[in-house]
Design brief:
GO terms for molecular function: DNA-binding transcription factor activity; transcription cis-regulatory region binding. Pfam families: Arabinose_bd (PF12625), HTH_18 (PF12833). By secondary structure, this protein is an alpha+beta fold. The chain has a five-stranded mixed β-sheet with strand order 1-2-5-3-4, with helices on both faces. Helix 6 links the parallel strand 3 and strand 4 (134-135). It has 17 helices and five strands. It has two domains: 2-178, no CATH class; 225-333, no CATH class. It starts with a helix and ends with a helix.
Amino acid sequence: MQLFELLHAQGEPHAGAKLAAQVDPGVAHGLVYFLRSHASLGQALQALNDLSPWLLPDGHWQMHGGASTLQISMAPSYESQRLGRLLRYESGLVWLHGLIARCLDRAPPVERVACMTADVGRGAELEALLGCTVEFGAPSFALHLPLSCLDWPLPGHSPGLVHALREALQRQLPRQAAASDKAEQLLRWLRRQTDLSGISLEDAARYFECSPSTLRRWLAQESVKFADLLQMQRSWRAFMAVLDRRMPLPEVAEALGYADRAGLERAFHATFGLRPAQLRQWLSDVQGQQGLGLAEALTQMAAQARRESRPEALVRSLSQAADTLPLQIRDAAAP
């Protein structure tokens, strides 16, 4: 990440993306060979989706099919203002584009591309790599392809190779994920905790088998603090719990470790720019007026929040919730 930031400061904002465009099919334990050996692009992308927790340990990966468009999106799991991490995701998007091209043996017909990074006047370089216009400052990194591409056959189809490489990948990729930075490991640990109300730096240090001061120093080297990561995870859980209108707000506050409902509301407003009850009312209004399902309503709310220049945390959380909200909550909240 530091190298990406250094190159960006020296006038090469898309250096990582240019490097990522040069996909070597021999790297990543034969991942490219494994994917292009599937029968169709849809099967290859599903296999990639299954591997995403290992390939993208610090973020969300989503595939969402609309009426005629397939959206593949990526975003960091937690709020991060660090430029290097966003540039790494930008490079990953270009790598994904090249990976699909390798599978098809031709350039993929990308309809639209979105990037969380800002346009610094060199957007044409990224657009040349991706073959279409790029929307900068978006809530996630995303490729939009025609939905019909899922059925396209792959010229390198080989059932035997798929079987042979799958086992090798499953043995090797978890080791790669284990080498990720401490902030990413800590975030994954926090996500696994069922109760955040009593989590402390000391608890996290015991997980890493180090002293609290050592863990604090490791995180400082990555420009993050334990309290910030914990608050980010609590904020995301609060956001999702508020959208689940079956849970009273006092119960949400207690489950997430806030002193009371007022504490939850203050923290929620500080992060998202509105109070929990206001978010619930906004969602009800959008669904009631237009008869939309929950996912569609959240997508529309994200677009409205972006137009109104609301906090980036609100825009991003609405976009992620549209794809990641549990099915049981969607069913309960649908009009």
